[in-house]
Structures are given as structure tokens and as C-alpha cells.
Amino acid sequence: MTRLENDTFIRALLRQPVDYTPVWMMRQAGRYLPEYNQTRARAGDFLALCKNPALATEVTLQPLDRFPLDAAILFSDILTIPDAMGLGLYFSTGEGPRFERPLREEREILSLIVPDPDTHLRYVMDAVTEIRKALNNRVPLIGFSGSPFTLACYMVEGASSSDYRQIKTMLYTRPDLLHHILDVTAQAVITYLNAQIEAGAQTVMIFDSWGGALSHAAYQEFSLRYMNQILEGLKREHNGERIPNILFTKGGGLWLESIMASGCDAIGLDWTIDIGEARRRTQDKVALQGNLDPAVLFSSPEAIAAEVGKILASYGHGHGHVFNLGHGISQFTPPENAKALVEAVHTQSVRYHQVG
Amino acid sequence: MTRLENDTFIRALLRQPVDYTPVWMMRQAGRYLPEYNQTRARAGDFLALCKNPALATEVTLQPLDRFPLDAAILFSDILTIPDAMGLGLYFSTGEGPRFERPLREEREILSLIVPDPDTHLRYVMDAVTEIRKALNNRVPLIGFSGSPFTLACYMVEGASSSDYRQIKTMLYTRPDLLHHILDVTAQAVITYLNAQIEAGAQTVMIFDSWGGALSHAAYQEFSLRYMNQILEGLKREHNGERIPNILFTKGGGLWLESIMASGCDAIGLDWTIDIGEARRRTQDKVALQGNLDPAVLFSSPEAIAAEVGKILASYGHGHGHVFNLGHGISQFTPPENAKALVEAVHTQSVRYHQVG
């Protein structure tokens, strides 16, 4: 059994008392950091970086060496699972991820197979192991996966999409096929996240980046349902330690009550919802993670401190809050503004955790 | 005083009894119609089409000749106001609208002027007059404008944006400058919409396409506040007839209560909110317009009828509902599916309006 030097993040997710509000930033190891860009250049490209455990470890730790963040997150891509399923992930310059073989044909859909995490996704587990070693228990390590619906969007569209035409056409004309994709993908996510936990991930987060593009009814049936399936299959403990989980549906503010009903430990919030209102609606039954607009980091340390103050005040006194951005940090963020964010959260949050 | 042959749409917006739920489709005069593409080709390009009242009239009426829609909407662009302010609107192929001179410099911002609708926007008023003549009171005509925040997004970014970096940087570093842009733009929208009403628009709609990109607090301060200002200056009657208004913030489902507090007649809803839930939250104090996912129109008449049925059932018995899509109809929509939508609404909605 290992003891974390700083377990504030884990305690906040479990709604236990903490001395201050922990903070990390989605995509904290990323292009806004010059040292990241250097490592990435050495790797060759983004995908090569993801698939190289030593370099993935290096970039995972870079933001921690700059800022006193309360958690590290595995450096990887959300599309590792469909890549391991054989769809042929690649990144075309300036256009984001693409698949060589998008899923369209019934025959291909019905022959989808859950990839074995120990072979095709071995590089992810190796990265988790190596990062844990390098972290040496400074802070906890977050593992993650895309949600089944978000993965299916990329798998069916073949790339990111502005109108989700292919997958929504399938959803409304052949829901049986989409359910099949989602079911196999949910099984794959369970296997994948449990392997990450066994390799050393101390929290797991599910990124449902695109569930917010669905209607309220379709969200329940095609996104949340499969995140529920994952939670049922997910390890909640490992080596006697609780492994908290976080569900994050971008644009999911209207659906908090049903997300909470999944039994998750924490809900990630984007910046469109008032976090105090979210706390009232979820009645302190889950932890909340969020929810600064990443665009605030384009401003100044003073403006950042003011916006951080509003979120802390809106959440109010008591535990169960992990500070984060409402979406990934932008590549155009000045690193000193990320530093100002972390400092503002740590400094200003202390008074909300004092007893009496 | 003229009498509309079909005033179902106006009555529904005013929450008066109707025999069935009226329906129209955002962007109903558009690229999914082959006859629209022909007229547009004759005009030369999209902007030339907007600026030619005779051709704008032609395309406005095209969908009404195909489908028994309950309202017509002025064919125009939301960016006419910034164009009239001198920013130099143009459309680059495949990239959407752009401005030659985006607003960045304080000096330029402080010299913004409310354009005179009778000169620089004369072509819009001429189109309204000509469309009213051509409609000959078949159905009411909707006039519209972009919201101040949405217009400001384009004006400051210079084009559509995925991260709103320029305008949000201004919002968090120089809110005074953004407030100035929004105030002048709100005045321009008031003048513009009132001129449309005098020219014959029988309802006005404000499209806040990008307000949903803001945080809850910034939405109140930078988007809704200026829509409130517009409502205060907007004519509510003309020639003894009520002129209802509709506010539509895409992604605004979390903020219905504050939108309703503006005193608007109706709120437009995208598809992420359950319309029955929206009705409970707004307590029948405003009409609701929406809210089918336009992607449903990629499916089949049967699937469309089923999804229409779910929305009508969720809204339930009683008046105050205008059926619409939750966003503009896609260019990839088969016209026969748009027809199926209109038929399904008209047929299935009758029973929700029967008394006793």
C-alpha cells in the first residue's frame, strides 16, 4: 500500500474534508507548453507520442513541474480504443483525428471485437505504470476513456463533425446497429479502464465530449445508458483503495439528475452552468468538477483571480469540489495564466474549507 | 387592416386557442431545395440574393409552395447590420461569412454608428414589403435579426469561430469595449426590427446563435442584457395588430427562467431540452417554439412521425406551442422529409387542441 503525499484530489472526489479545493486542468499536458511541443517534435507526431510510454510519461509530468497541480492525467488520446479495434487512426495536419476505415457497413459493425488491453493497448498500460513510477506518489494519476457515444461518433463519422450527419442518420434509421456499436464499445471501455486501474490509475474519468449534441431523449438512450453500463463493470477499488470515477458530458448541464443517477462519484461540468445551481440540483450526493471557461485564461492574472473567486463563492462552503476548466486548456493560453489559475484556486479556496 | 387567411402561428405565439400546432422550419428557404439553388445561381451568390428584393421574395415563398407551412420568414442574412456598419461582409467559398475589417481597435469600436435602416438596409425593407405583397395574407411573415452578442462575435472574430478567442479575450480584459459594441448593436437591432415591422413583418425573432458559448454569468451580462434592451425598444403593436417576438438562444436551455424574465412572447428551444420540462419551468407564461433535432430529417417519414409525436406528447394538451426544428434545416435534407415533418405536425397535433 502506498501513501500519496497529496491526496486532496481523491478526498474531494469522495466528498471528504480537505484543506483547500484541489485543481487540475483538462489537457494540462499540451500545446500551450513549449516543453510539450519540444517532446512532441522529438516523438515525430501526436500519435507517436501517445504510443511511446517514456515520452508520454515525460509530457504527463511537465505541467506538474511548472504548477502545483493536485492531479496528473495520463497523456493519451481518446481514440485509442477504436484504433485498437482496427479502424486505422491517423492525424492529418490541422484537421484533427481521422479514421482510415469509418464504420458504415452492417457487416463491419457486426464484426467489431473488444480489443485486448494487454496486446493492442499495451502501450497505454505501460505508460500508466511508468507515469506512476515517475510520479512517486506526489499526486494521484487519472486514467481516462472517451464515452461509447463519443467514440462511436468518431468511428461512424470517420472524423470530427459539425452536424453528426452519419451517426444521427444511423441513430434514427438503424438504432439497432448503433446500439451494437455502443454495446461493444462500452465493453471495451470497461476492459480498458479496469486495465488502467490495475496498471496504477487512481481515478478514472469518462469524457463524453459529444453527448451534448443529442436530444434529451437520445442522450439517455444512446449516451448515458452506456456510461451506466461502464459504471456497473468498473472496479471501484484496487489494492484496498477507492478508485473514484468522474463522468463528464460537455453540454450536459440540463441532465445532471440523470447523470447522478448513474451512481458516479463525480460529475464534470462545463462553464454554461452555475456550479452553485449544479450543487443544489445534485444535493451534495456527488462531487462536482469544474467549471471555468478556458477562455478566461486568455485574459490577465487579475481577471482570472476574479473569475475563480466567483466559482468558489458559488460552490460555497464545504467539500466535494474539484476545480477545473470546463473544457481542455487552449493551445493559445500563456503558461503564466495557467499558473495564476492554480494559485488563485489554492489561495482563495482555503476559507471555504475552514470549520466553524 | 388586413386579415390573415391563416393566423394559427400568431395565435400560438400569443397563447390563444388554435385548432392544431403551427409549424415552420428555421432556414426553410435554403439549399435543401433545388429551386432555391437555381434562384441563387441566377442571383450570382448568397449576398447578391439577400440584396435583391425580387429574388429574396422568390426564395421566401418557395417552401410555402411546397409545404403547408404556417409562417414565412424573410430571406436575409443575420449579418446585414454589421455589413451596414461598414465592416465589409463577404462570403468565401465553403468558409461561411467573413468581414474584411473585423473590429479590434478601440478607435474603430468607439466610432461605430447605428446604421440608418432607410438607406444602408433599404434592400431588407424592400424585401419585406415585396414579400408581404406576394404572400397576400396567406400566412404571417417573420422578420428577424441576430442578437447583439451573436453579431458582435462575427464583428470581433471576423468570421465564425470555434473557440471565440478574440471576443472572449475582449470580454474578460476589456469588458467596457465589448459593452460599447453591444450597446450600439442593440440600438441598431431595435431600429432595424422596428423598420421591418413598419415594412410589414408580423412577428420578429432574435437569433442568439452563439450566446450558448458563454458562461451562465457572462450570458446574463453580455447577451441577455442586450436582448432585454431590444425588447424595451421594440414595437409590440403595429396598425392595431400585436407583433409577437421570439427569443432564441441556441444552447440556452439552462437559462429559460431568465430569458422568460425579459418579457418576450416566445422562447425558441434547441433539441437538448425536453419541451415538456421547458413548459413546466416556464409555467405557460410564454409560448415555446421547437424543438426537433434537424438531424431527424435525415431519416424516414416513419421515424420523423415518431419523433414529432414524442415532442407533441411531451408538450401535451393546450396552446402556446409553435413546432419548429431546434436549429436550421440542413442542406442535406431530402425535401420529402421536410414535407413529412409538416404533415406529421398538422395531423398529430389536432387532438392536443381539442376541448373537453
UniProtKB/TrEMBL annotation, chains A, B:
Q: Predominant location of this chain?
A: cytoplasm
What UniProt keywords are attached to this protein's entry?
Cytoplasm, Decarboxylase, Lyase, Porphyrin biosynthesis
> Pathway involvement?
Porphyrin-containing compound metabolism; protoporphyrin-IX biosynthesis; coproporphyrinogen-III from 5-aminolevulinate: step 4/4
List positions binding substrate: R27, Q28, A29, G30, R31, D77, Y154, S209, H327
One GO term describing the cellular component: cytosol
GO terms for biological process?
Answer: protoporphyrinogen IX biosynthetic process from glutamate
- What are the site positions for Transition state stabilizer? D77
The protein's annotated catalytic reaction(s) are: uroporphyrinogen III + 4 H(+) = coproporphyrinogen III + 4 CO2
Query: Among its keywords, does the record have Nucleotide-binding?
Result: no
GO MF term set: uroporphyrinogen decarboxylase activity
Q: Which residues form the Uroporphyrinogen decarboxylase (URO-D) domain?
A: 22-31, 142-158
Q: What is its EC number?
A: 4.1.1.37
Show the Pfam families listed in the entry: URO-D
Q: Which residues form a coiled coil?
A: none
Q: Where in the cell is it found?
A: Cytoplasm
Subunit relationships: Homodimer.
NCBIfam families linked to this entry: hemE
Q: Which family does it belong to?
A: Belongs to the uroporphyrinogen decarboxylase family.
Q: Its function?
A: Catalyzes the decarboxylation of four acetate groups of uroporphyrinogen-III to yield coproporphyrinogen-III.
HAMAP family tied to this protein: URO_D
Q: How is this protein named in the record?
A: Uroporphyrinogen decarboxylase
Q: Which organism is it from?
A: Nitrosomonas eutropha
Q: Which gene encodes it?
A: hemE
